[in-house]
């Protein structure tokens, strides 16, 4: 059984989706889809997670798509409009784990330039004893190196941590390294997963149910 929890951040603790911003810039859903699949793609965005600044990463893209310069610049200039707030079920779980004395940490593909603002979105971040930020390290999930770095930094083995992430590839990589894992796809499934591992006691209504 794990004795600590290692949290992803985006779409686990706080909701992040480029469409939250770009649906304002491109009201036509098809046009929005084309922009995000052909111009500001997730593959292009990964450079930010590796530590490249918004300013540096957009230079080449603007040269390729000058007609979309304003929209490309919005990725950095209006970054915070991509967020739609914390996920309440995760916030509550983090608070309950803290009250139970369970150590908690973070491991996120995120820019070193945006981590402070992201942490300000929820007091739950204050319960994490440390966060490995990919932008600081120059390596991103699912590279095994960043998982090993988290283990070294937090002084725990993979088997001692439950890793919670919304990305199937990240979950697969962590499981291959020996982590216990929970693929975060439904916020309502989080607490039962923590209870099943003995990290949290069953709530009264669940504890009173038979079978």
When the domains are counted, the total is 2
CATH topology of the largest domain, by name, is: Rossmann fold
Stretches where pLDDT is under 50 for at least 5 consecutive residues are 206-211
| Overall pLDDT confidence | 96
Number of helices: 12
Query: What is the CATH superfamily of the largest domain?
Result: HAD superfamily/HAD-like
**What is the terminal separation in angstroms?**
22 Å
- Main sheet characteristics: 5 strands, parallel
Shape: globular
Main CATH class of the largest domain = Alpha Beta
* Beta content: 5-15%
Q: How many DSSP E strands?
A: 7
- Regarding quaternary structure, what we see is single chain
Explain the overall architecture:
The protein is of the alpha/beta class and 211 residues long. It folds into two domains: 4-14 and 86-200, HAD superfamily/HAD-like (Rossmann fold); 16-82. The chain is built from twelve helices and seven strands. The strands form two sheets. A five-stranded parallel sheet has the order 5-4-1-6-7, with helices on both faces. Strands 2-3 form a two-stranded antiparallel sheet. The longest helix has 12 residues, at 88-99. 32% of the residues are buried. Mean pLDDT is 96; it is low at 206-211.
């Amino acid at each position: 059984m794990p004795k600590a929890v290692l949290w992803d951040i985006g779409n686990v603790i706080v909701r992040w989706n480029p469409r939250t911003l770009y649906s304002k810039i491109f009201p036509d859903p098809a046009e929005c889809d084309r922009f995000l699949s052909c111009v500001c793609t997730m593959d292009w965005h990964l450079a930010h997670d590796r530590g490249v600044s918004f300013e540096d990463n957009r230079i080449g893209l603007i040269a390729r798509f000058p007609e979309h310069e304003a929209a490309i610049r919005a990725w950095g200039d209006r970054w915070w409009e991509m967020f739609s707030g914390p996920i309440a079920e995760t916030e509550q779980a983090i608070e309950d784990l803290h009250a139970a004395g369970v150590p908690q940490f973070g491991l996120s593909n995120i820019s070193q330039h945006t981590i402070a603002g992201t942490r300000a979105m929820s007091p739950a971040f204050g319960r994490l004893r440390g966060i490995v930020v990919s932008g600081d390290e120059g390596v991103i999930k699912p590279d095994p190196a960043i998982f090993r770095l988290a283990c070294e930094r937090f002084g725990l083995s993979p088997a001692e941590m439950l890793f919670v992430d919304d990305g199937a590839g990240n979950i697969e990589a962590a499981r291959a390294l020996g982590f216990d894992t929970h693929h975060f796809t439904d916020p309502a499934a989080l607490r039962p997963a923590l209870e099943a591992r003995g990290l949290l006691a069953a709530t009264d209504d669940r504890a009173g149910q038979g079978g």
